[in-house]
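fyi for ur records
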Amino acid sequence: MVQLVLEEATEKMADAVAHTRREFSTVRTGRASSSMVENLTVAAYGVDMRMQELASFSVPEPRQLMITPHDPANVTAVERAVVNADLGLAPSNDGRTIRLSFPELTEERRRDMVRMINRMAEEGKNHLRGVRRHARKDLDDIESEGHVSEDDIRHAGSQLDGLIHRNEAEIDEARKAKEDELLEV
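which gave:
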């Protein structure tokens, strides 16, 4: 029982770290990246679809992203989705493709993005703490049922603490790397 609680907590914490890293990848660093637009919702064929399902992406230049819809009829819908996402980018449409030009980031904008990254990292850590809180509650419930010794529960609690420290360190490492990337001129 105790091992199941720890395995579940390990899995959920790994998911939280992966989610936080994905969130970091959506923050632009002045370089073109399709991760900013891949998951945007596009109204096409009468339903909402992810842009990733409707188009392919390429980076012809370091500061330019080219979106090529699989069906040329969806060019305007894709363009509308980019405009509505309020990414701070002005799409240009040539009838078959959409080009997004990424402007140089100002120092003030870089600092704002660092604050946003720090907020995302803190949200990820809060999620980790919630997982730990639920795992602790499960361990306490197991202990109160009397199936496991107090020493085993204490040992599992210390394993849980080590687990959260490792995962928080991973989030901090990813945050630091993204911050360095953002502040790089």
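The helical segments are 2-25, 51-54, 75-84, 107-145, 150-183. thats all i got for now
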